[in-house]
Amino acid sequence: MNFIETFRVAFEAIVSNKVRSGLTMLGVIIGVMAVILLVSIGQGAQVYITKELTGMGTNLLVITPGKTSTRGGFHPPSAGTVRKLTYDDSQALRRRAWLLTDAVPLVFGTGKLKYQNMGRDVMIIGTTPEFQRVRNLFIDTGSYIAQSDVDSKAKVIVLGTKVKEELFGTENALGKVVILSDARYRVVGVMRKKGTSMGMDIDDIVYVPVTSGQELFDTDSLFEIIASTPRAEDVDNAIVQIKDVLIKRHAHKEDFTIQTQGAMLETMNTILGVLTAVLGGIAGISLLVGGIGIMNIMLVSVRERTREIGIRKALGARNKDILAQFMIEAITLSGAGGVIGIILGVGLALLIPVFVDVLPTSVSLWSIMMAFFFSAAVGIFFGVYPARKAALQDPIQALRYE
Amino acid sequence: MIELSHITKIYRMGGVDITVLADVSLKVQPGELIAIMGPSGSGKSTIMNMLGCLDRPTSGSYRFEGREINAMTDDELASIRNVKIGFVFQTFNLLPRFTALKNVEVPLIYSGVPARLRKERAMPLLEQVGLAERMHHKPTELSGGQQQRVAIARALVNHPMLLLADEPTGNLDSRSGEEILNMLVGLNQQGVTVIIVTHDQNVAARCNRVISVKDGQIINDQVRV
C-alpha cells in the first residue's frame, strides 16, 4: 500500500467527519497560534527595547554612585557612607578622560510646575548643554540650557512640548516666568516633540541647569553621569580612563558603578528572553492539550471503525498498513491544524501592532518552524497509541464488532 | 490444496477453556464445491476462519498449498488472504464510505496495484456481476443482493483459488439468494474452489460435498457424485 493511497484513505476519513475533525484541529490551531503569537510578542518587546536603547544615543556609559557587584540592571541612588558623585567629578572627566566626547552630570526628580493658575506635576532633569547631544534631543523654539546657565546657577527652564501645551496652550512660552517648587524660573526654550521611550514620556519632562537642579533637590550629589565615546570600540578603554580619573578623586576607592549600554541591552534581552520562553512554554502546554484531544478523537475513531479494520485485514491489509492509515490520519489532523494555526498566529501577530501600538510584535521564522514541527510531533506522539491499538486488533473480533 | 489435520481450537474466556474445535481433519481438492453445515455454535464459523487464515489453530496442522500456516508471520497470512482467498460474508462487509467500485479495488490496494490499473481490473468484474450501472453508488444505495454481488466482485478481484462464503444468502430474500448461489456455482464451474458455510438445505443441495459439523467435530463428510 503506497503512501498516496494511505494518505487518501486518511483524508477521506477526516473529511467524512468534518465537525469532529474541525474541533479536534481547533485544539492544535489554538495551541500553535498561541505559541507563535506569544513568542512574537516577546520578541517584539526585545526588538523594541533594543531599538529604544540604541535610539537614546550610541556608545553610552552610565556612571552611578555606589559599587554593585552585579552587571547591568537598575541601581538605587547611593546610600550610606558611599562618596557621592559630584559636579566636579563630571568636570574632571570632561577634562581628563579624553576618550569621552561627553560626560554629562545628571540629577532628576519630580516637582510641581505652576504658571498663573495652572499647575501640574512634572519630571525634572537637571543637566548640562551636552545632554541634548547624548540623548538626541532637539530644541523647537528658544534655546537649550547654556554652560553659562550652569556656571551661574541660573533659574532657567526648558519645557517639553506636552508641558508647554498644557500650561501655555498656543501662547508663546519664551521669556515667561513659571514657579517650579516655590522658585521662579524663566522659560528659555521648548523641546521638539519626541514621544515615549522605555515607557517614559519624553515630552512631559522639564530641564534645568544641573547646578540649579541640585539646589532644587537640596543635594550636592549627582544621580548619575552619562558619558559617551565616539566609537563602540572605545568603550572598554573609556571605562579604564573613567576609573582612573574617579578613583584618584575618591580617595583611591572604586565607589561607583559604570554601566555600558551593551550591558544594559544584554540584561534587558536576558529578561525578555526568559519572558518569551515562559510565554512560549505556556502556549506549548495548550498545544499539548490539543494533542491529547487528537489522541482522544483517534481512539474514538479506531473504536468506531473496528469493523472497517476487520474488513481491511480480511482483505489482506497488514498490521503496518492499518498503523500507517491511522498514523497519517492523526498527523494530517495535527499538521493541518498546525498550518492553519501558523496562518492565524502570523496574521494576528502582524495585525496586533496596527490596533494596539503598545504591543510591538516580531514574527520569526524559527518560531514558525518550531510551532509546526512541534504540532507534527504532537500528532505522531499522540497518534501512535490509537494507531497501534487499531493495527493489533484481532481480525475475527473486529469483523464481529457491531 | 488444503489440508487440516487434527486441528484443535481452544478459546480462553473468563478463565475457562472452551474447546471450539476438537481434532478436526479435512482435505480439500482444487475445484471442489463444498457446503459446511451445522447448528450455530457447532464450530463451523471457526473452521471457516481457520480456512481463511484469519485464525490460527491451538494445535494441529494446517497446510495451504503445502505450506504450514502455523509457521507463518501475520504479514504472510495477510498476503495469503489478499491474493489466494476471497471472502463473502453474510453481512456483506462493504466499506460504507466507499463506492461499489472503490470497494472492489480495496484488495488491490493492499497488493500494491497502481490506481489506474485497479480501476481497469475492478470494472469488468462489476460488469460481470451485473452492476455496470451501479458502480459509483455507495453500499447504502444498493439492495442486499446488489451489495452481495459487489462483495463477490471484491472477492474475485485478485483471482483467488479459494472462495469462502459465510452464509452468503443468509441476509437475502429467496430470489436474490438464488442469484447469488447461481453465481457461486458458476464460479466453481470456472474452476474456483468454493466453500460455503450455510444453514440452508437448498444451498447444500447444490454442492457436491457436504460436511456436517457438531460440537466442534466433523460428524459427516459426504461426497455426492
Characterization of the model:
The complex is a heterodimer of chains A (402) and B (225). By secondary structure, chain A is α+β, with helices and mostly antiparallel strands. Chain A is built from 13 helices and twelve strands. In chain A, the strands form two sheets. In chain A, strands 2-3-10-5-7-6 form a six-stranded mixed β-barrel. In chain A, strands 8-9 form a two-stranded antiparallel ribbon. In chain A, strand 6 and strand 7 form a beta hairpin. In chain A, helix 1 packs across helix 11, helix 2 runs antiparallel to helix 12 and helix 9 crosses helix 11. Chain A starts with a helix and ends with a helix. The model of chain A has no long low-confidence stretch (mean pLDDT 86). The radius of gyration of chain B is 17 Å and the shape is globular. In chain B, helix 6 links the parallel strand 7 and strand 8. In chain B, 34% of the residues lie in helices and 29% in strands. The model of chain B has no long low-confidence stretch (mean pLDDT 92). The two termini of chain B are 20 Å apart. A six-stranded mixed β-sheet of chain B has the order 6-7-8-3-9-10, sandwiched between helices. With 225 residues, chain B is α/β, with parallel strands linked by helices. In chain B, helix 3 runs parallel beside helix 5, helix 4 packs across helix 5 and helix 5 packs parallel to helix 6. The chains are: A alpha+beta (402), B alpha/beta (225).
Short structural description:
With 402 residues, chain A is of the alpha+beta class.
Q: What is the count of DSSP helices of chain A, taking H or I runs of 4+ residues?
A: 13
Structural class designation of chain A: alpha+beta
- Span from first to last CA of chain B? 20 Å
Q: Please describe the biggest sheet of chain A, giving its number of strands, its sense, and whether it closes into a barrel.
A: 6 strands, mixed, barrel
Report the mean per-residue pLDDT of chain B as an integer: 92
Give the largest interface: A-B, 23 and 26 residues
Q: In sequence order, what are the helices and strands of chain B, one letter per element?
A: EEEHEEHEHHHEHEHEE
What is the count of β-strands of chain B?
A: 10
Average pLDDT metric of chain A: 86
Head-to-tail CA distance between termini of chain A: 27 Å
Count up the helices of chain B.
7
Largest sheet of chain B, order of strands side by side? 6-7-8-3-9-10
